Amino acid sequence: MANSLLRFFLLLSFTLLSAANHRKPRSLFLSPPLSESTTSFSSAAAPPTTYFEVTKPIPLPKTLPCSIQILRHEFAYTYGKSPVLAEYKPPSNCASRNSPKIVLELTAASKGRQFDRIFGVWLGGVEILRSCTAEPRRTGIVWTVKKDITRYRSLLMKEQTLAVYIGNIIDNTYTGVYHVNLTIHFYPVEEKNHGRNRVISGDDVGFMAADLILPVSRNLPLNDGLWFEIENSTHVLGEEIEIPQNTYRAILEVYVSPHENDEFWYTNYPNEYIYENNLTDAPGNGPFREVVVRLDDSIVGSIWPFTVIYTGGVNPFLWRPISGIGSFDLPSYDIEITPFLGKLLDGKNHSFTFSVTNALNVWYIDANLHLWLDEKSDKTHGKLLKHSTPPLSLSLVSSFSGANVVFTTNASRSIVSSGWVKSSHGVITTKSRQEFTYSNSMAMKNDGDLQVLDQMIYSKGSVDAKKRLSSVFRDKLFRRFRIYLSSDDVDKGNGTLASTVDLRLSIDEKSRRGSCFGSWKRRIKNRQKGHGYMLLKDSNLVDGLGETQQDYRYSSDESCYFRNVRSSNYTILHDEDSNTCKNNEP
Questions:
Q1: How far is CA 343 from CA 296, 338, 368, 370, in A?
Q2: Assessment of whether the complete model's pTM goes beyond 0.90
Q3: In the chain, what is the greatest distance between 2 CA atoms, to the nearest angstrom?
């Protein structure tokens, strides 16, 4: 049976990487970095290409920022070495403590040939950015990532150790050095809002940033990133933490990214299919993954992650210059821990641990524990009232004969917790609910040369905080993640293989927040579709094409934003955007 391009590139990439003795996070729908000697691109005298991820611009005050560069470094021979470290000090020449908006800006450049590299930025062990580098070209590339880091305000007000890890290798083939600058912009308060130390974006309206953020990550010194590495389905890693005794609210923010054999987990075959067809090199355990978060061995939350495709994934031509959704700024996921404060406020250490259902090697996971402290009290008290975690529901239905098969995988999960905390704010009862449903339909046809999958994840979360006679705040969040992927391979003979890929990625999100400060709602629709073609001769790329179109729509009570952009092999064919609400609401 001829394997699909998915499995072909797995063998190809392993062969290339073994010569460098480099455990690079790669797998499956992954070609080696493109060599422009095999394509018809412009000469080396051309200016660098600007890559970008489509997202809504960060809303900013109408003031000039106070900016400090926190790192400037060339990442070359950095794989298997310590993260680059620098001492961070809060700026003393501006009113950073009163900044209603704080933005992290990363600018990067590279030239030559190189793999995409996952990387992280940590401050005092707290991860503030998870990202993926772009794959460079001979004429050079540049890209910029801007992230709202206002929620990390308390962390930024103290001296910290900055750590940045990009594991890169330079040799005669892979020549791309990553030149990276990191800058933090502190925006002063506008005169009309003077004295209001609140986040101004809709994401955080009415809510103060946490008073303290504790890292749930590995400790330096390390020769890698600070993330935990989950290598299989039984692997559980985490850290013990003791929280201040005057905590009255807690949120665990979790970063996750899959790599190597699980980079394309949503395409993985069930093990029965692998055994039946003797696919010894194909990643298995099926296409379902769940990141499980535990507090002292009790499940307190779950993450069913969005399918981020890195810049070298599926067909690298697709991501030049439009990057995949979430690839330059990987999402983090919040889990409400407040109902469990009655357990945490005993003055003892407690463990937060992570595992991944059905995992193969490897998942990078860490977290930040955001804590709100009662400044009028030395001790708060609490009690867990209810905690319900029914077992995960997971089913697989398959029908196959040889290499031709249809798999249908379904899953569901719910987690409900409630508890009260007594502080100077009164007795507040918080109820948290997480609900998930999942479906993945996968068909293998043409003796395994054609793979078609359609996966959908629905998640619904809510947090409701109440006093006896009034509501304190209420959050609701609905998300739908979808990926559709069709990969069709044709053996042309004489060692030549042609592959065609069609891809659809989308995030639909609705959220609503309300408190005594006011209410707010928003809607995001972010959709990508791409078509790619590759021709390989004796395992070498001969020709390729990538066409990508993206439609991004955002609306809230405060603003709207729309962008529609289309590209083909490094060239932007169409680009329009608007910040008016007329006809742009999702």
A1: 10, 10, 19, 16
A2: yes
A3: 77
